[in-house]
Amino acid sequence: xxxxxxxxxxxxxxxxxxxxxxxxxxxxxxxxxxxxxxxxxxxxxxxxxxxxxxxxxxxxxxxxxxxxxxxx
Length: 72
Prior knowledge:
The chain has about 70 residues and is mainly α. The chain has one domain (about 10-70): lambda repressor-like DNA-binding domains (434 Repressor (Amino-terminal Domain)). It has helices at about 10-20, 25-30, 35-40, 50-60, 60-70. It starts with 7 loop residues before the first helix and ends with a helix. The mean pLDDT is about 95.
């Protein structure tokens, strides 16, 4: 079985910083609260549908980031 070697919450934080987008801005874009967004950013794994929404909001392919870390 392939092992995922990425903490997706940390990766989202990195992209937020590089794009100069605030946590509050992202929360608004995906229709959630700032508090919930911080909880999401603390998670190692998140729901695929949520990752799609975040990818679209930030115009970044997080699925590519994940696939590049798979040990297959």
